[in-house]
Amino acid sequence: MFNIEEELKLLPDKPGVYIMRDKTDNIIYVGKAVVLKNRVKQYFQSSRNHSSKIIQMVENIHHFEYIVTDSEVEALVLECNLIKEHRPKYNTMLKDDKSYPYIRVTVDEAYPRVLFSRDIKRNKSKYFGPYTSSSAVKDILDLLRKLYKIRTCNRNLPKDIGKERPCLYYYMGQCDAPCQGYISKEEYGKNIDQVIEFLSGNYAPVVKMLKERMNEAAESMEYEKAASYRDLLGSVRQIMNKQKITNTDLSDKDIIAFARNKDEAVVQTFFIRGGKLIGRDHFYLTGVEDENDSKVITSFIKQFYAGTPYIPKEIFLETEPEDEEVLSQWLSSKRGQKVYLRVPKKGNKEKLVELAKKNALLILNKDAEKLKREEARTTGALRELADYLDLPLITRIESFDISNTAGFETVGSMVVFENGRAKKSDYRKFKIRSIQGPDDYSAMYEMLTRRFTHGIRELEEMKEKQLDKSLGSFTKYPDLILMDGGKGQVNVALKVLDELKLDIAVCGMVKDNNHRTRGIYYRNEELPIDKSSELFKLITRIQDETHRFAIEYHRSLRKKRQVHSILDDIKGIGPSRRRALMKYFQSLEAIREAKPEELEKVPSMNKSSAKAVYDFFNKPKDQ
Questions:
Q1: What is the mean pLDDT of residues 554-581?
Q2: Which of 120, 207, 235, 250 is 20 to 30 Å from 82 at the Cα level?
Q3: How much is the pTM?
Q4: Where in the chain is the domain with CATH 3.40.1440.10?
Q5: Which CATH number describes the domain made up of 396-561?
């Protein structure tokens, strides 16, 4: 038995990461500490200085564990990894897990290529980005092919020069075919230099070149060629318009600011590379209501830069983060050079931070109504349900249903909703094994018993192997079970939970004569629900989804059964022999009456398979 007071006495006087778990062993909070003993003890002292979120989190702590590290920076790295993997309920969470595209120039090759890349590797290639749109990167690559005729193939040059025919891009006029030796290494290298200059933001040379070629083609009355140069010039100008010069400082930097409203925040990020704004993006944070601005920006920096391959030299912020020195050390180690976290107080940089702040506020206001509606139909409806049933908290709901046709092929379905949204990765199907005929209560008893015994077994295995990660979705127990039915189905669920010594609330979703949701059955009483409420809509969505999932599974099994033949039950008779038998004898009755020597005459049949078929249809009745 975990004794929190005794375990607090054993905490070490060292840096590390602490992990809070609830009674079902789910990780609900991850934090780092300079001194584990001091930090963890603070949670269990007087709650006067705690935020409401921390108070609620502490109430749900069943046990905790910790990992000692050699330094605070190591603790920060481990904290970031654990938060990303487990997404704990009470941590401030970055909702968007985006990866950005880059353009990679393989300057270490004799004939470099210009490629799309999702990550930055420690090699001699040059990387440009990040870009906020994959389609924009593809447009740029397409433009560079047309402008500079750079190869896209994987051929090993110059070793493979002349070994194969040139590719389609050569015939389209978008590659100078270095694979054939049609362009010298020096000339090709000059094209690559122009590509790098273009990607660095110097567009003047290419604009001048395209204008000259367009005018020359027009004077020579080559109007089609002039039109193609005009189109290329338009593409270059479009890219120029997206990359506005911000200042004369050519260093790489990110500008970060945010706006907040209750439990949500929108973070706006500007990506400046070589003095130009090459892109911007916004992100949503949840769980910020009781956090100060420094903690919000710190949570964003940790989660965002943990998953971003490129770290700029400078990061400009609207407010100083917590643990600024440790964050800077961590970011510097990722970049391989010193990274500076700055809060500008005047000049262009302050104006850029203000601009990012205004953009974040615009997005927050624009999305406020949308977020409000979404919150009402999901977590808001869950809070309404918890209050209605007098439960402390509902996050995960599991709903169960049975489907059969006159007792044929009875199946069960388990549908999962987390935070008011369907979690389809946790849906499960059950083929009922022990029941023959239409007995929904017995089928439900089997399904629930299998679901929760499986979970108990997995949890025991996790503890035995000292695993942090769940073996499967069955290790997560619901806060509420919803049964597709009334009193009878609820009593079946309560019986299973009682036998397995599990304490989980159970409700029945009661339908009217038109098969529509009418109310919920809870604690031996049918409770009506306001049909205009978000709670009613959520219950209806769960009920419809549970029914749909069960019906679809049952329908798929019926289809499989329809194409199943009794011949498939005979050992050694596969699809080809089955088809051969049916083709030769024309009917199952003729096969049943055939002698072994007749069966041997069928193509693909031999003596042993013929005997297997004969014995199958002629075995004694008592066998």
A1: 70
A2: 120
A3: 0.49
A4: 4-91
A5: 3.30.420.340
